[in-house]
Design a protein that fits this description.
Layout (H helix, E strand, L loop, with lengths): L4 H4 L11 E2 L2 H4 L8 E4 L9 H7 L7 E4 L10 H6 L3 E6 L6 H9 L3 E4 L2 H13 L3 E4 L13 E4 L2 E7 L3 E12 L4 E2 L8 H6 L1 E12 L18 E4 L18
Parallel strand pairs: 1-12, 2-3, 2-9, 3-4, 4-5, 9-11, 11-12
Antiparallel strand pairs: 6-8, 7-8, 9-10
Length: 249
């Protein structure tokens, strides 16, 4: 991985707003070419769309992205693909993004397809200080080729290494000025894991509140894992639209 962004940052200013950034460009000033980014979200749910839209127009390139999937064309990570910012993607699903599929089949990008549960656990392990873990997922398939195996209780398991990143780009419904975050629904799948597994975490929040406004028991990601907060209401899109036809038509 590239040099840790924390080594290149100025010391945060003291005060209640030390983590709050004015705009996405300021927040992304830590991202350098060659870094590994952990990007939260599930499909189009809970993705840091403002951060991704801005990053597509910044100089940083040759990036490695770890994300559950690349969403759709012309939105989210699709913007980075179209701008040819990515050299490698680690994901569990390709299907909704034609440009992702095109670059994969053309050999324009290195793709590591990983079972979804394995990807989530690799991030969780990285955020928990674990080096690796064993899982039965993928045993007996091409995914297991070249991986170390071990038997436990007569069953074969694969050794999977933990996964960490330089910078995490995540999205939360509510965040306070200390970086404590609350997610909504499916957005809680990968965002908390990415937040924990990165050296530097930027959280895009739809609603920004003062410290002390959140019930401590409702906090999903403690502020200790968050380095910068960007207030952005965001944009709601539907990944795959399905409509019910009225009866009698």
């Amino acid at each position: 991985m590239a040099k840790s962004p924390k080594q290149a940052l100025r010391k945060p200013e003291s005060g209640r707003d030390r983590k709050v950034v004015v705009d996405a460009t300021e927040a992304l000033s830590v991202v350098q070419s060659g870094m590994r980014l952990l990007v939260g979200g599930f499909g189009l749910c809970g993705i840091p769309e403002k951060l991704l839209a801005t990053l597509a127009h910044l100089p940083a390139g040759d990036l490695e992205v770890v994300s559950n999937n690349c969403g759709v064309d012309n939105f989210g990570l699709g913007w980075l693909l179209e701008a040819h910012k990515l050299r490698r993607i680690t994901a569990s699903y390709v299907g909704e993004n034609r440009e992702f599929e095109r670059q994969l089949l053309a050999g324009d990008i290195d793709v590591s397809l990983t079972p979804q549960g394995t990807l989530a656990e690799r991030l969780r392990a990285g955020g928990s200080g674990l080096a690796a873990f064993y899982t039965p997922t993928g045993v007996g398939t091409s995914y297991a080729e070249g991986k170390e195996t071990r038997a436990f209780g007569g069953k074969t398991y694969l050794l999977e290494e933990a996964l960490r990143g330089d910078v995490a780009l995540i999205k939360a419904e509510i965040g306070d000025r200390a970086g404590n975050l609350v997610y909504r629904g499916t957005a809680r799948n990968f965002n908390p894991l990415c937040a924990m597994a990165a050296d530097y975490t930027i959280a895009e929040v739809e609603t920004l509140v003062d410290e002390g406004s959140l019930d401590p028991d409702s906090v999903h990601t403690p502020g200790i894992f968050v380095d910068a907060i960007l207030h952005s209401p965001g944009e709601k899109r539907i990944e795959r639209l399905k409509e019910q036809m009225p009866e009698g038509t």
